[in-house]
Amino acid sequence: MLSKRLIACLDVRDGKLAKSVKFVDTQDIGDPVEKAREYYLDGLDELVFYDITASSDKRNIMLDVVEAVASEVFIPLSVGGGIRSVQDATSLRLAGAEKINLNSAAVLRPELISECADAIGNQNVVLSMDILRVPASVQIPSGYEIVINGGRTPMGIDALQWAIDGERLGAGELVVNSIDADGTKAGYELKLTAMISSAVRIPVIASGGAGKPEHLVDALTVGKADAALVASMVHFGEYKVSQLKQELHNRHIKMRMSW
Questions:
Q1: Which CATH architecture has domain 5-250?
Q2: In this structure, are residues 42 and 240 in contact, taking their beta carbons and an 8 Å threshold?
Q3: What does the domain layout of the chain look like in residue ranges?
Q4: What whole-number distance in Å separates Cα of residue 42 and Cα of residue 104?
Q5: Which end of the chain has the least Cβ crowding within 10 Å, N or C?
Q6: How many degrees, rounded to 5, is the angle at CA 73 between CA 113 and CA 55?
């Protein structure tokens, strides 16, 4: 059995670490480089860096911040926000990112997934999906809709179908981010996560809603996720990375332990 992963997410706005609740009320909460180093030294498995306004501002990601983070951590670094071309993806790889996260631009032009997979390898292309719970309909039979531009633009695309399409187009991993659960610390959207995990063969990362260790356990068992992404619960000092990994290990979930 493969080990499960604990991933911390750094949402960055204007070079500052930021956190929102359900994609609104975003507050600056610190220095992303400092936090990245802290989590790396405490045994984090992987780090995700999102430039959360790059797509909505129609600008490129801040390579200088990516380079600064990459110089401080020596674990897989996945970066997203404003990636619209193979050149953007390549620039991020040169800046120190191991993986690139596609989101809004891939929804608008799905072939971008295949282009990036061909250029840098499927294993290095992550499809991040921001998902909102809606009434089930003919257009959205799963009851979950894809939203882009940092939660601003509903697309009328069924999230389950988009996950399946993303795998077919060449994504090597999926981030299932529930807007409804984001920042609430009330638990992951387990129905959504399990539904997508069961429909694809590539790794799925559960995102949005982690507030206590039990939530991570649920995501990795009930939600069938391969990795759990955390933000608020570590950013605000309520839990340490090493503490969370130990809790998961104690619950008989196979983790990479460094101590």
A1: Alpha-Beta Barrel (3.20)
A2: yes
A3: 5-250
A4: 32
A5: N
A6: 35
What's at 48, amino acid-wise? V
Instruction: Please state the φ and ψ torsions of residue 91, each to the nearest 5 degrees.
Output: -60, -40
Q: Contact at 8 Å (CB) between 6 and 241?
A: yes
**What single DSSP character describes residue 84?**
-
Q: For residues 181 and 195, what is the distance between their CA atoms, to the nearest angstrom?
A: 16
Alpha-carbon dihedral angle through residues 131, 99, 205, 137, given to the nearest 10 degrees: 30
The H-or-E segment that residue 247 falls in is helix 241-250
Give catalytic residues, as residue numbers. Answer: 11, 130
Tens of pLDDT, residue by residue, the chain (259 residues):
689 999 998 888 766 776 655 554 455 557 888 888 999 999 999 999 888 666 556 666 678 888 988 998 999 999 998 899 999 999 999 999 999 999 999 999 999 999 999 999 999 999 999 999 999 999 999 999 999 987 889 999 999 999 999 999 999 999 999 999 988 899 999 999 999 999 999 999 999 999 999 999 999 999 999 999 998 899 888 999 999 999 999 999 999 886 5
Please state whether 175 falls in left (phi above 0), alpha (psi between -120 and 50) or beta.
beta
